[in-house]
Amino acid sequence: MSDAIRIHAADNVATALADLAADGAVAVGSQRLTISEAIGRGHKLALVPIARGTSVIKYGFPIGVATAEIAAGAHVHGHNLATALTGSDDYVYAPPLAVPPLASSAHQFMGYARADGRVGTRNEIWILPTVGCVGNLAARVARIAGVRHAGRLDGIHAFKHPFGCSQLGDDLGHTRGLVAALAQHPNAGGVLIVGLGCESNQLTALLDTIPEGRRGHIRTLSAQAVEDDEAASLALVDELVEACADTRRTPAPLSALTLGVKCGGSDGLSGLTANPLVGRMADAVAAAEGKVILTEIPEIFGAEQLLLDRAVSRDVFDRTAQLVQDFKAYFTRNGEPVSENPSPGNIAGGITTLEEKSLGAVQKGGQVPLVDVQLYGGEATLPGLTLLEAPGNDAVSSTALTAAGATVILFTTGRGTPLGFPAPTLKIASNSELAARKSGWIDFDAGMVIGDGFDMASDALLDLIIATASGKATRAEANEERDIAIWKSGVTL
């Protein structure tokens, strides 16, 4: 068995599959190398001598430039590899290539059919505050109502946030749009939106952004307008429970699933195991004419052309290119380089440059054609892959995925995180050591692809997705890890 893996024939580096000791011989396929220093799992070693100033190649693409002479067998990382990213790029449009049809799936899940034709994977009551001032009220009502109505539906949850007042312009719009989008999610059989009364994020303006046909399951309360805000909120929740508690799961095709794909705390194995495995899940859902949502725009910098090449039209290409360039301008406008990534955890796990991180991250989209681009707070409406505007931050981007309609989120990680979000979130470990050590966080071990191969792992993960969509609790749900985070991008008064 190989000690390290070369991903693409053009690569001049390989990735260690386990910790490698100094002065040892390592096998990379049929090649044997002697390494002069210890190399950690997920880190890179040179397969051939790499001259200073030349490109380091992984995934078949440059991931940066060698800043020193690198000998064959040497550790390749921040001490001898640097990013080549700049603040702007010229993208090349070509008519979309004919993509061979993916094998469709006859799988079904047991979901909750909604009146507008969408299908939820949970039947819950969501309590959404318009402003941070009533966040604790929302949480208290959810706790009381959860006990009162235990067992009648899948749960009653409040999603606190600190925003909604002292905000201006687009910043206020982000908060309003996110709350409004969550209120329309198919996993919420009933929604109570609680306002204070004097906040910038006024209830009336928020409701005006929600189509009338999607307001039937929504109730609202202005806390300043009633004497006993807790009792009034509980009465409205009681009403919502009575309206949706008898809803039952029915068979639904895979086309009714909306899959959000996300990575966080990645390591050097994420792009070899967990992310391409999630890409296969994206392929399966899209082949059934379901929806897949990819976000984290700063974490496609350096790999965006791979997505642009899959745009189904010139319009989608142009909107994708504009979104990426606007996000780069957001960085430079704030005095930050576009390459200010990876994180310390990514680096410790073997990722050196943003190009490397991005080339691994975009694999979560599989081979799915890019059919649409949505701005923050927007909804994925077309079968295929939708690119969603949001930053890389785990909580902000996963909340945005939920607001865009994701009914299950696949979250890959090489370092681990306990976070959970409104939509059921499956944590997929890139390596078996993490899966064993943090079994209370991790739902699936993608490290199995190294020994058992992608086919076995794909079958097992698809079965888990279907079970989760049908009601099986994720680790985050069992741990009561259910939170949201809203993108703060403007002035606070």
Automatic annotation (TrEMBL):
Keywords assigned: Hydrolase, Lyase
Pfam families hit by this protein: GD_AH_C, GD_AH_second, SAF
Signal peptide (from-to): none
GO molecular function, one term: lyase activity
InterPro entries: GD_AH_C (IPR048332), GD_AH_second (IPR007392), SAF (IPR013974), SAF_UxaA/GarD (IPR044144), UxaA_altronate/galactarate_dh (IPR052172)
SAF domain boundaries: 11-82
Gene Ontology terms: biological process: D-galacturonate catabolic process
Membership in a protein family: Belongs to the UxaA family.
Stated name of the protein: Altronate hydrolase
Species: Sphingopyxis bauzanensis
